[in-house]
Amino acid sequence: MDVDLMMRVYPFFLKAAWVTIQLSILTTILGLACGALGAAARLSRFAFLRFLGAAYVSVIRGTPALIQLFILYFGGPQIGIQLDAFEAGVIGLGVNIGAYMTETIRGSIIAIDKGQREAARTLGLSKVQAFRKVTLPQAFRLMIRPLGVNINALIKGTALVAAISVVELTYTAQRYIGSTYKPFEMFLLSGVLYMIIIYGTGRVITWLDRKARIV
Amino acid sequence: MTEEKHFVEIRHAKKSFGTLEVLKDINLTVERGQIVGIIGSSGSGKSTLLRAINDLDPLSGGEVWLDGVQVNKSLPHRQYEKHINAMRQQVGMVFQHFNLFPHLTVRDNVTMAPKLLKGISNDEAETLAREQLEHVGMLEKIDAFPSQLSGGQKQRVAIARALAMKPKLMLFDEATSALDPELVEEVNQVMKKLAEEHMTMIIVTHEMDFAASVCDRVLFMEKGVVVEEGPPEVIFKNPEKQRTREFLRKHIEGAA
Ligand SMILES: Nc1ncnc2c1ncn2[C@@H]1O[C@H](COP(=O)(O)OP(=O)(O)OP(=O)(O)O)[C@@H](O)[C@H]1O
Ligand SMILES: [Mg+2]
C-alpha cells in the first residue's frame, strides 16, 4: 500500500469530503421539505392531493436514482432547465430521498394512536390544534430514527453525482486513479472519509433521538 | 320543537357502520345533575351512543341536544367545525384507555386545552391544574409524565383533564375496565365525588354494583336498542324484561 501517495493526496480528498458534506446537508434539507409536503399530500382529505403524493412516491421509488439525475442534468436543458452539476445533484438527490422521507413521515404520523386525536378533539381542540399539539409532537419523536436511516442512505447516495462530474469524494477518487493507477489507495481514502461522515451523522441522530424520547 | 326542555336529549338516534346497524332509534333524556348508567353486552352500541353525544361518532339519523342547543345540527363544514368544537368544550369525556398525552407532564395534560381554548394565563393555568389535580388526589404527581403513573392514577388525571374545561356534562366509557381490580376503587371514588357535587354524568359500565350505587337511572341496551330503563333498584332487582334478567344473570355468573 502506497502510504506516501495517500499522505500527499489526502488534502484534496478532504476538500472533496467537504463537498460531500455540503451535498448531504442541502439534500437533507430539500428531502425533508419534499417529505413533509409529500406526507401532507398523502394524508390530505383531498383525493387529488393524495393521488399526487402517491404518484410522487411510486415514480421516484420505481426508477433508479441515477436515471433521475441523468434526466435532470442531461435531459433538463432540452426542456429549458439549466443547472450546474452541483445544483442538479442537490435537487435530484433531494427530490429522490424526499419520496422515501414522505413514507417515513407519513408512517410516523399514522402510527399515533387515534385515541390521542380523539382525546384532543373531545376537549374542544380543532383538527389543526389537535394535530399541532398532540399528533405531531409524538410523531416527531417516532420519525427521528427512521429519518436517520433515510439520511444514511442519502449520504451514500451522494456518490452517484460523480456520474455528472460533481467533484465530491467518489469523483475525486476516480480522478486520482486516472493519474496514479492506485485504485486501492484512492478508494480506501474516500471510503474512510465516507465512514467518518456517516458515523458522525449517526451520532447526531442518536443524540437527537435520546433527547426527544418521552420519559 | 321540544315542548319540555331536557338537559340532554337524544331523539331517534340511528347509526350504521356500513350495513351494520349499531343504533336503532334510540331515545334518551337526562336532566341536569342526573347520573345515567348504560349497561349491555359487548357490541350492543353503548360506546357508539356515548360517542354520538359529542359527535365523535356522528349519527346517521336523529338529533342530539345539550342544554337547548342541537349538537349535531347541519351546518356548512367550516361553521360546523366551529360549532362542534364549542359544544365539545362543554362535554368532558373519559376513555377506557385513558388517552393521556404521553409527551406532556400531568400538569400540561390538564392545562393544555384551557390554555389553548380559553386563553388563560400561566398563573391561572397553574392554579387550575393544582385545583383539579387536588380534586382527584393527584397533586403530588403534577410534574410526572403519564408513563410514570399506574392505571388508576392515569385515569384520575384523565378525569382532571376533562374537568379542567369546566364541562356541563361528563361522559365515561368504561372508565375502569382496563384497570387492575385493586385500582378500580380509587377511580370509582372520584366518580362518586363528582356525583355528590351534582355533575351530570352518563356512564357506560360493566360494573353493576357501581352502577347500582351511583346512578339515578340505568339503561339496558342490546343490539342497538334500549331494552329497558328505570331506577337501579328496578333494573337490578326486579327487571321487567326477560332479556334484562338473562343479561344480569349471565353477567353476575360471569363475574363470579
Ligand atoms: N368505527 C367502526 N367501524 C365499524 N364498526 C364499528 C365501529 N365502531 C363500532 N363498530 C361496531 O359497532 C358495534 C357496537 O360497537 P360499540 O363499541 O358501540 O359497542 P359497545 O356496546 O360499546 O361494546 P363494548 O362493551 O365491547 O365496548 C360493534 O359491533 C362494533 O364492532
Ligand atoms: Mg364500548
TrEMBL record, chain A:
Entry membrane topology: Multi-pass membrane protein
Cellular component, GO, one term: ATP-binding cassette (ABC) transporter complex
All copies of domain ABC transmembrane type-1, residue ranges: 17-205
Domain of life the protein comes from: Bacteria
Membrane-spanning intervals of the chain: 12-39, 51-73, 147-167, 187-208
Keywords: Amino-acid transport, Cell membrane, Membrane, Transmembrane, Transmembrane helix, Transport
Main location: membrane
Biological processes annotated in GO: amino acid transport
Entry-linked InterPro entries: AA_ABC_transptr_permease_3TM, ArtM/GltK/GlnP/TcyL/YhdX-like, MetI-like, MetI-like_sf
Classification via PANTHER family: L-CYSTINE TRANSPORT SYSTEM PERMEASE PROTEIN TCYL (PTHR30614:SF0), MEMBRANE COMPONENT OF AMINO ACID ABC TRANSPORTER (PTHR30614)
Family, per entry: Belongs to the binding-protein-dependent transport system permease family. HisMQ subfamily.
Annotated protein name in UniProt: ABC transporter permease subunit
UniProtKB/TrEMBL annotation, chain B:
Short name of any one Pfam family annotated for the protein: ABC_tran
Main localization (coarse): membrane
Record-level Gene Ontology MF annotations: ABC-type amino acid transporter activity; ATP binding; ATP hydrolysis activity
Topology with respect to the bilayer: Peripheral membrane protein
Subcellular location: Cell membrane
InterPro entries in the record: AAA+_ATPase (IPR003593), ABC_ATPase_HisP-typ (IPR030679), ABC_transporter-like_ATP-bd (IPR003439), ABC_transporter-like_CS (IPR017871), MetN_ABC_transporter-like (IPR050086), P-loop_NTPase (IPR027417)
Residue ranges occupied by any ABC transporter domain in the UniProt entry: 8-248
Gene3D superfamilies attached to this UniProt entry: P-loop containing nucleotide triphosphate hydrolases
One Gene Ontology CC term in the entry: plasma membrane
Keyword annotations of the record: Amino-acid transport, ATP-binding, Cell membrane, Membrane, Nucleotide-binding, Transport
PANTHER family in UniProt: AMINO ACID IMPORT ATP-BINDING PROTEIN, GLUTAMATE_ASPARTATE IMPORT ATP-BINDING PROTEIN GLTL
Family stated for the protein in its record: Belongs to the ABC transporter superfamily.
Protein name per Swiss-Prot or TrEMBL: ATP-binding cassette domain-containing protein
Annotated organism of origin: Maritimibacter harenae
